[in-house]
Write a structure and sequence with these properties.
The structure is a homodimer of 279-residue chains.
Chain A (H helix, E strand, L loop, with lengths): L10 H5 L3 E4 L2 E6 L12 H15 L4 E9 L6 E12 L4 E9 L2 E11 L9 E2 L13 E2 L14 E5 L16 E8 L7 H7 L8 H4 L7 E8 L8 E6 L2 E3 L2 E9 L5 E10 L10
Antiparallel strand pairs in A: 1-2, 2-4, 3-6, 3-11, 4-5, 5-6, 8-9, 9-10, 10-12, 11-15, 12-14, 13-14, 14-15
Chain lengths: 279, 279
């Protein structure tokens, strides 16, 4: 298998490229590929761009935890990223990145970085990768050109056959979505692409209420736990608590060697209020 | 039972009071009561202060989600809070609060506010309050003056008898901590005190690795779901994934009428590296 150093540059790396324009400022471009209907780029894509800017700003190389707040719509087009150092300890450093388009701040990100190659400490994991049939027995994303998010063309995603109710508009009522994920060109995963994958799967809430269209993210936090080894990643996303159209989504991502790579949580909203019991 | 309007002012309200000093600036004081050993104030206490400043800044009255990043140590003493409006929709508004001591920014908070009294939308909750014996059959916090965090004197906390291994230094190996919580003076809960309670319980990881002392929070996000009704709140905190001394803690808080009040997640670190398997 390829080592970490052999990961080759692909479309994702190119589409998240930044040019340094000052000590703590960068210019980049939100590519149309990563936009949803209407052009708003995927939240995990924005997070990967913010993480790249912070990687250039901070004294540690690897994101350990990163939080994004999506308070104004972003669009396809140029973006300015301004970063700030916030704090530093021996093992971690924390920074802030503001993503600005047309002079208006649209999103911001706070991240703590570490060095996974030197980090030490106790490890006890009471969790397991999702139980899945082999990739060839799982169901590919039912991509429909012009209707599905364009970036699904760039990602190879295979779902547990029991979790496909959303695609047939017969949700089975349980907020769960598990499967395999990788880039469609076979490029192996790394920490930055894990940030993308943590927000690239159709929302697990679609298996509760059906596919409702765009569900905007208010806040997304991803904790990274290990640098992924080559091969398929496996994901499991769950939503248990929908209150007045607002819901959390919890994620876990595991690598081909059964190592935990990331856990994530986001809070999102259904765009169309539906009839239901308010408590 | 008392209605929401009858909630009386208590020590918590007094200790989180802010004075407005400008359009978007406030002055306050971190009281010793809410400090851990060494004086660092509790992270939920800081979050409640930030939420009060944002409540005065934003156009909606109730916190829906708030994230804190704790990148430098805070201390007992005066604090300046500077706020900023970030975005607004019809149903929510988002703002940013920086907490500054001695001219140095120590923590920051991003929050989205809403109006729970007018919010509408679908509600489906696939989760239940923790199963607990009656409060009188649960175990009170084993408070030791001079050793336990001082604020435990101000909070009445009762633990599930099965979750007390940490206090006897015989952790049973499962990262779970469930019980009842309220103010010791009987003041009923509200949204701001829920932010405190979401970070006031001894870490669930103590039931995995034993009580290790202070476990600093890197990032904490609390989602609020409903305004609590009077009476005891019930909590359940869990930690499943400890990797190289870094771990998440997930929380749920329920009210006396079995309504979900909050879910929270934080990422923390054990201060003393211990022997274990790194993966």
């Amino acid at each position: 298998m390829a080592s970490q150093a052999d990961v080759t540059t692909n479309f994702f790396d190119e589409d998240t490229t930044l040019e340094r324009t000052g000590d703590n400022s960068f210019s980049g471009f939100f590519h149309e590929t990563w936009g949803l209907a209407g052009g708003t780029p995927n939240g995990g894509y924005l997070m990967a761009i913010a993480a790249r800017a912070l990687q250039e700003t901070l004294d540690h190389p690897h994101p350990l935890t990163i939080t994004g707040h999506y308070f104004k719509r972003s669009d396809t087009g140029p973006v300015v990223v301004e970063t700030e150092k916030l704090g530093r300890s021996f093992t971690t450093s924390t920074g802030f990145a503001r993503l600005i388009q047309d002079g208006v701040q649209r999103t911001h990100f706070t991240a703590t970085f570490t060095d996974f190659d030197h980090a030490v400490g106790q490890t006890i994991v009471h969790a397991e990768p999702p139980k899945l049939p082999a990739p060839e027995d799982c169901i590919a994303h039912p991509y429909v050109a012009g209707r599905s998010p364009k970036f699904q063309e760039k990602i190879d995603m295979r779902f547990h056959p029991d979790h496909m109710g959303w695609a047939k508009r017969t949700p089975h009522g349980v907020g769960e979505m598990a499967g395999y994920i990788r880039f469609s060109d076979g490029r192996d995963p790394d920490l930055l692409s894990t940030l993308l994958f943590a927000d690239a799967v159709p929302p697990a809430v679609f298996n509760v209420v059906g596919p409702t269209g765009w569900v905007p993210t208010i806040e997304l936090t991803t904790h990274l736990r290990n640098r992924p080894r080559p091969g398929w990643l496996r994901f499991r996303f769950t939503t248990r608590m929908l209150t007045r159209g607002i819901f959390e989504e919890d994620g876990e991502i595991w690598d081909s060697e059964d190592r935990l790579i990331a856990d994530s949580r986001q809070i999102q909203k259904l765009m169309v209020p539906r009839k239901g019991v308010d408590s």
